[in-house]
Specification:
This protein is an alpha+beta fold. It has 24 helices and 19 strands.
């Protein structure tokens, strides 16, 4: 088989993709860990002890500096504050002298009222060099935009203000967060520092620098390991699809080499020698393709410093031995495993087969009863596990059920895939090409099942992700609507004049001024904090908060899942308490009571303005306009449910793009498998094609014949994959979210129809080259006896 390497090209390409993906994933995981380790170590530098507390005063730093054995201290500010309108969170950091911070615009500070900001803050606040710092009564001027070095910030992507020690200390309310202490004996120093009254007990964390750094890196590495594990799951999927392609390739190649294998048996080759020969060719193919895959994976990851310079540099993306050896060995193992059954079939070729004139393999038998019973059992067990997972809200059972069910679907493929292809092709049976295409899928059920099965994996996973994302998005959207009584809320000293200014903003439909207070709710012997609004029936109706309408004077809405509807609760605030009844609103973040209840519990409660938008309004634009209208009232703050909604939508969109991109590897491998199977079937059916040509079928009809077969199998994979994906997606989200909130079923019909069309298109594209090869067959040459 190695004498004709082009026949192994598709298997090699499948291995290349699987190895490249796995290699890139492992390098990415180790690179993230190394990058974070560099950032953590950059702040520690040569310190022996790290002191960390919420508020370390300069007096405490002086006490540390005066301790015996201390050769130097380096206090660091790491604080936070709100800035801008609407407000966003900003880090306040010490700018190290002579550090690795890079100036992008302007210059570094030289005066006490000069600061620099990073690019993230410049974008968040629309700030530039020369602007004032974006907080009330600021006298600080932005003199530069910088890229913080590892010695300045461990989180370079967050908005940050950097300033010399004196200025940073003033902005952080005269307190430090870290003190890096140098000295010859770290353990002794740590014990001495811990004994200081200001840092004793649980007031501060005092640790040797090496141990503190290792702990931080270990915590981050744990998160990185989870990410790497998730990515490797997609690598396993890619290798599984590759195994189907490889197995199908070697099965067809063994069938096509029946005469040669039989001749070797006639010349004295044993079954073991035949088995080793086929597996040896598989190992050689995998070894060479694996090396190419390693180069491709390493090459892709080496581009990361160009696209994410804040996270990666050229040194951090250097692969280790594990990232190179593991994927290569995995590629060989998968290839050998996939080629084992075809190699075993090669040992069963009788020597007399070399003398038979008809060498065309018969692949028309579907599957035996053992495989059929196993497939049915797995399918039924999988369905049961999926139903159980949805009812008991257990994601682990759901994952196991999905794997079992899909394994059953694949095992039964030779029974149902040809039948489904024949059903899809029935409308085209009036034409000879359509009839032949349908008959070919039924005549070779195993090959048809393997071809469609590879594509079925990709379409099922993609449709499952699309369906799950649509259901989760709809469910969370409904939850957010129930969580907030208004789309925008203005907190602070709200006056009628402020309410009038907000109501005049274009896009605002209605406003309502009410009170908000923090209360303690006691039920079943347990206490919890809750934020309550005073709502009238008219306000609740105006803002569409139906769950808070018609509240009785002794009722309170609660989002708690541990309190039953109608249960008696005690609500307390400021020394006053009331006995009330609970009205449960799942996932509600704010509670509601009658306004007179707020007046009783908290007479000095904070004012809040509820804002309802028109259906045509753009929430982001209206929020900005309200912020501008209230710009001269810095004591007011804005909160919008659209911030959470947009954040979740952006997160879902990002995750969806990433997951679909990862699944694209598997889809690409399955596409290779379809083209491979069709290409090898062209060689296998060379004489049959020649006979059809001799009987009058022209070259274009032959192309349509191969294209029709591919479309039928692609259609089966697309439709079946969508149906399976919908079921898996519903069960998965029900298991994941059903316990916390009611799940809303939402099927992305347009996207799934597009997926079916994409499956058909990919299958047809995969058939183009094999169809061209089949059309070029010369009838006279192909009918000649070999």
């Amino acid at each position: 088989m190695l004498r004709e390497p082009r026949r192994l090209l598709s298997s090699a390409l499948a291995i290349v993709l699987g190895v490249a993906f796995t290699c890139a994933t492992l390098i990415l995981g180790s690179s993230l860990s190394r990058s974070y380790a560099d950032q953590v170590a950059g702040r520690v530098k040569d310190a022996s002890v790290v002191v960390n507390a919420a508020a370390i005063t300069p007096e405490t730093v002086a006490q540390i500096n005066a301790l015996p054995g201390v050769t130097g201290t380096r206090p660091l500010v790491e604080s936070g504050r709100s800035a801008g309108s609407p407000a966003y969170y900003v880090q306040i950091l010490t700018l190290p002298q002579g550090g690795s911070t890079t100036v992008l615009q302007g210059r570094l500070p030289t005066g006490d009222s000069e600061i620099v900001i990073n690019e993230a803050m410049a974008q968040a606040g629309h700030l530039k060099v020369g602007d004032r710092a974006p907080w009330p009564d600021s006298t600080d001027t932005i003199v530069g935009i910088v890229k913080p070095g590892s010695d300045a910030s461990a989180y370079p992507s967050q908005p940050a203000v950097l300033a010399p020690d004196k200025t940073a200390l003033r902005l952080a309310d005269n307190t430090y967060a870290f003190v890096m202490v140098s000295g010859p004996d770290g353990a002794a120093l740590a014990a001495t520092i811990k004994a200081l009254p200001a840092l004793s007990g649980d007031k501060a964390t005092v640790a040797e620098a090496a141990a503190w750094t290792a702990k931080k890196i270990e915590a981050f590495t744990g998160n990185t390991a989870i990410t790497t594990g998730i990515l490797l799951t997609f690598g396993v999927i890619a290798f599984f699809v590759a195994a189907l392609v490889i197995s199908n390739t070697f099965s067809i190649l063994v069938a096509q080499n029946t005469r040669r294998l039989a001749l070797l048996r006639c010349l004295g080759a044993s079954r073991a020698q035949t088995f080793r020969q086929v597996l040896g060719e598989a190992v050689i193919t995998a070894a060479i393709a694996g090396v190419v895959g390693l180069g491709a994976g390493w090459g892709l990851v080496s581009l990361l410093p160009r696209f994410a310079p804040d996270l990666f540099d050229l040194n951090s993306v250097t692969p280790d031995a594990v990232a190179l050896i593991t994927p290569w060995l995995a590629g060989i193992a998968v290839t050998v495993g996939a080629a084992a059954l075809p190699a075993l079939a090669a040992t069963r070729v009788p020597p007399l087969a070399a003398l038979r004139p008809d060498l065309t393999s018969s692949n028309g038998r579907p599957i035996g009863w053992v495989r059929t019973v196993a497939g049915l059992a797995l399918f039924v067990l999988g369905v049961g596990a999926l139903v159980t997972a949805a009812l008991q809200h257990d994601l682990v059972i759901g994952l196991a059920g999905g794997v079992l069910n899909f394994a059953g679907v694949l095992l039964l493929g030779p029974w149902w895939i040809p039948a489904a292809a024949a059903a899809l092709g029935r409308p085209f049976r009036a034409h000879i090409v359509g009839q032949l295409a349908g008959e070919n899928t039924r005549r070779t059920p195993r090959r048809a099942a393997t071809t469609a099965g590879a594509l079925l994996i990709g379409t099922t996973l993609v449709s499952m992700v699309l369906t799950g994302a649509a259901i989760a998005s709809a469910t969370i959207e409904d939850t957010i609507v129930r969580r907030y009584p208004a789309e925008i809320m203005v907190y602070g000293p709200v006056t009628p004049q402020i309410a009038q200014r907000v109501g005049a903003v274009n896009g605002v439909q209605a406003t309502a001024q009410t009170q908000i207070a923090s209360v303690e709710v006691e039920a079943n012997g347990r206490k919890s904090e809750s934020t309550v609004l005073g709502l009238t029936d008219a306000t609740a109706a105006t803002f569409g908060w139906s769950s808070a309408q018609n509240l009785a004077p002794d009722e309170i809405t609660l989002g708690s899942s541990t309190i039953s509807h109608g249960s008696p609760v005690t609500v307390s605030a400021g020394g006053a308490s009331l006995r009330m009844r609970a009205r449960i609103v799942p996932q509600a973040s704010l509670s509601a009571v009658r306004p007179e209840v707020i007046a009783t519990l908290a007479p000095d409660a904070e004012q809040v303005l509820l804002v309802k938008l028109t259906s045509q309004a753009d929430p982001t634009t209206v929020l900005g306009d309200i912020g501008a209208a209230l710009g001269d009232n810095p004591e007011l703050s804005l909160m919008s449910s659209h911030m959470e909604r947009d954040s979740i939508a952006q997160a879902f969109s990002t995750v969806l793009i990433v997951v679909l991109g990862l699944l694209a590897v598997s889809v690409l491998i399955s596409l290779v498998g379809v083209g491979n199977t069709l290409g090898l079937s062209v060689l296998e059916r060379r004489r049959e094609t020649a006979l059809l040509r001799a009987l009058g079928l022209d070259a274009s009809a032959v192309r349509r014949l191969l294209g029709g077969e591919a479309l039928l199998l692609g259609g089966v994979a697309g439709v079946a994959g969508v149906l399976l994906g919908i079921g898996y997606g519903i069960a998965g989200i029900q298991a994941l979210l059903g316990e916390q909130t009611p799940v809303l079923i939402s099927v992305p019909v347009a996207q799934l129809l597009l997926l079916v069309g994409l499956s058909l298109g990919l299958a047809w594209v995969a058939s183009v080259l094999p169809a061209g090869r089949a059309a070029s067959v010369s009838p006279a040459a192909a009918l000649a006896q070999e």
